[in-house]
Specification:
Shape: elongated
Distance between the termini: 69 Å
Oligomer: single chain
Radius of gyration: 25 Å
Helix content: 40-55%
Length: 187
């Protein structure tokens, strides 16, 4: 049995069989049209789910993104949020960022989505973005003058120790705050 539902103004159909689910956009905003398309698309989905037909389709990227983001990936909420932002920005035609590392992250997420679509037989060919997927390391070193200002102008002794510890270890604030005193101060 398949059901139709609306998402962002577009009607979709979803069908499941044997713990597998397929969803497809009906590419209409009209409920009456969606109801008329339902039997035909339902049959196609059930044929695919039962293995009667196996075929690669050429779904549009927006549909691939919808399916990819709806699939179970064991992502954290922040990873899902980032991937959703990147993929939806790409679908809407937003250009890739100019900063090399951010651009590499966007490229990597978009290409992973294309690979997932290939693996799941949703497309015949992936249109992956060429280029760097690693990015550049950013290095910001304080000058001697900046470092002296930093250490000499902090009057609170405890906070000065905190800043020095953070600077010399490279630890983040939250990491430092989670260290117990027993692990830092001996006796």
């Amino acid at each position: 049995m398949a059901t139709i539902y609306m998402n962002r103004g577009i009607w979709y159909i979803t069908a499941s069989y044997d713990k597998q689910r397929l969803t497809r956009s009906l590419r209409t905003k009209d409920k009456q049209v969606a109801k008329k398309l339902k039997p035909l698309i339902e049959l196609e989905l059930l044929e695919e789910l039962t293995g009667v037909i196996t075929r690669r389709r050429n779904l549009p990227f927006d549909e691939i993104v919808h399916r990819y983001l709806s699939a179970e990936h064991n992502w954290t909420s922040k990873t899902k949020e980032l991937n959703s932002y990147i993929l939806n920005a790409h679908v809407s035609g937003k250009p890739l960022p100019s900063q090399p590392t951010t651009k590499a992250i966007h490229t990597r997420v978009i290409n992973i989505c294309w690979n997932w679509a290939l693996k799941n037989r949703l497309i015949k060919k992936a249109y992956k973005i060429e280029g760097d997927t690693k990015g550049e390391t950013r290095s910001r070193v304080l000058s001697k003058n900046e470092l002296n200002k930093l250490f000499n102008n902090i009057s609170d002794d405890q906070f000065n120790k905190f800043v020095r510890f953070a600077y010399y270890t490279g630890a983040r604030s939250g990491e430092i705050r989670r260290i117990s005193k027993e692990n830092v101060f001996n006796e």
